[in-house]
Amino acid sequence: MTNHAHVLIVIAGDPQIRLRDVADKTGITERAAQRIVSDLVDAGYLTRTRHGRRNRYSVNASAPVNHPLLSDVKVGSLIGLAA
Fold it and tell me: Which stretches of 1-83 are DSSP H helices?
């Protein structure tokens, strides 16, 4: 799986997780985690909401996976397989 998929799965498991913790759990730098989360928000896979000093994320489970071999698969199904 890609780092984008790893980050998405980690955030789905803990919507209030800090990016530092996402980076630790996925084995990437914090800056890479920030970039990936921004990519996922821009692509419509995640929604970011500010709560005080922290962010809360929600996963768009009905979004289609953007890969030719997985065109019929939804993000929610991918997360379910990983869990």
Answer: 3-13, 19-26, 30-42, 75-82
